[in-house]
Amino acid sequence: MSAPLMEFRGVSRRYGQGEAEVRALDQVDLTIRAGEFVAIMGPSGSGKSTAMNIIGCLDRPSAGDYLFQGTEVGRWSQDARALLRREFLGFVFQGFNLLPRTTALENVELPMIYKGIPRPERIARARQALARVGLAGREGHDPSQLSGGQQQRVAIARALAGNPKVILADEPTGNLDTQRSREIMALLTDLNREGITIVMVTHEEDMARHARRLIVFVDGHLARDQAQEATPC
C-alpha cells in the first residue's frame, strides 16, 4: 500500500473562545492516498468544508498535525502554504470563479502567470488543458458564451494547467442540471483514472456515488469512512 499523500493526525479546528467556542473539527484522524477519488459529505456545520480548507492549505488546524507527502504543513507560514497550493493543488468551485470579460484561454492561463511561466508555454498548456476537457475550439469564448457545464470545464482546465497532484472540488456540480452534472463527474472520473487524486465535497448523494471512497462528517467528527463501488459514468 502506498504512503499517505495527505494525513490528519488528531486534527481539531476551533473558532471563538469560551462559551462562544465552536469546534468545527474535533480530533480527526484521516488518511488519503495518491490516486484515490474521495467524496466528503455531511450536514451543514458538520466540518466537511473545514476539513477541505485544511486539506487545501486555506486554513490550518488549531491542534493536531496535517501532513502532505509525509511533511507537517499545517503550521507552515501563509506564504509557504500558498506555495504548496500553487505547486501541488488544483481547485474547482461551485461558482466556477471565472473572470467574466476574459476568454476561456485567458482564464486558464491566469494561475500560470503567478507561477512565472513564459507566455508561449502558458498558451500551449492552456490550449492543451482545454482540449483535455473537451473544449478545443472554444478558447476565444468568454463565460457568457458558454453553458454552465462548459464554464465548469474551463474551471477544471484551469486547475489542470498547473499539473496538480490533487484536485480539490467543492460542490463542483452544485450549479448544474442533472445532465451537465453527470458530464462533470465523468470528466473527474477520467482524470482520476489518469492518476490525479480527487477530493470532492458534495451534498448530492448521486454525485458522491461516483467516488470510490465516501467520508461523512457529523458534528466535527469523522462518522463514516468506507470504500464503495463507483457508479459507472
TrEMBL record:
The record places domain ABC transporter at 6-233
| GO molecular function (one) | ATP binding
Stored Pfam families: ABC_tran
Alphabetical list of InterPro entries matching this protein: AAA+_ATPase, ABC_transporter-like_ATP-bd, ABC_transporter-like_CS, ABC_transpr_LolD-like, MacB-like_ATP-bd, P-loop_NTPase
One Gene Ontology cellular component term attached to this UniProt record is: plasma membrane
Q: Which SMART domains match?
A: AAA
State the source organism's domain of life. Answer: Bacteria
* Family annotation (PANTHER family): ABC TRANSPORTER ABCH.1, IMPORT ATP-BINDING PROTEIN
Protein name listed in UniProt? Macrolide ABC transporter ATP-binding protein
Give the species this sequence originates from: Gemmobacter lanyuensis
Tell me the lineage of the source organism.
Answer: Bacteria, Pseudomonadati, Pseudomonadota, Alphaproteobacteria, Rhodobacterales
